[in-house]
Design goal:
Blueprint: H1 3-27, E1 35-41, E2 48-52, E3 57-59, E4 68-73, E5 79-83, E6 91-100, E7 107-116, H2 122-125, H3 127-143, H4 147-150, H5 157-162, H6 169-177
Parallel strand pairs: 3-7
Antiparallel strand pairs: 1-2, 1-4, 5-6, 6-7
Length: 178
């Protein structure tokens, strides 16, 4: 047989084998879907929880309505989607983090339980915190240091906003205008 006649069938066989290898590798490819770190915060960045791990149970500040989720993955091209970062009910809420690998085929779900404390009775339970916050408001207003309102008494901005009627009229006016 003539080599010229075999050239095309040999070429087609090589292309076919290469295509099969490429399809097989692509079909079974798995890109990393692991998480390096998870950070949770509120919208203003006042409440912050670093070093969160999958399956953690995190108690939210009373009245927090939204969690900002920052996820660092081992694959910089991985796609991260989250559900459950808002619309909390009293008690346990599930935050679902889905990491899809850069191959768009492999994915892993990570779950974190976010506990929303009940608002009922918050003012009564936190009388001392409220009194300190109210007292600190006057100092913060003078010195323009609003961290005194929340940080020193241990009240979060979310707690103050969710329970605004517990606080002094001056503090309520400040909160409403900022």
């Amino acid at each position: 047989m003539n080599l010229k006649k075999l050239r095309m069938p040999i070429f087609m066989a090589v292309v076919g084998v290469a295509a099969l290898v490429f399809v097989s590798l692509n079909m079974f490819a798995t890109a990393p879907t692991t998480i390096k770190s998870i950070t949770l915060s509120d919208q203003g960045g006042i409440w912050l929880k670093e070093g969160v791990k999958a399956n953690d149970k995190i108690t939210l500040p009373t009245g927090l309505a939204l969690v900002v989720v920052k996820v660092a993955t081992t694959d910089p091209k991985a796609v991260v989607t989250t559900t459950g970062e808002t619309g909390f009910k009293d008690g346990d809420n599930i935050l679902d983090i889905k990491v899809t690998g850069s191959d768009a085929k492999s994915s892993t779900h990570y779950k974190i339980t976010l506990v929303q404390p009940k608002l009922a009775g918050w003012c009564q339970t936190n009388k001392a915190k409220i009194a300190t916050t109210n007292d600190n408001y006057e100092l913060a207003d003078i010195y323009q240091d609003y961290s005194l309102i929340y940080i020193e008494p241990g009240a979060t901005e979310a707690e103050v906003r969710a329970n605004i009627t517990c606080f002094s009229e001056n503090l309520q006016k400040y909160i409403a205008s900022h």
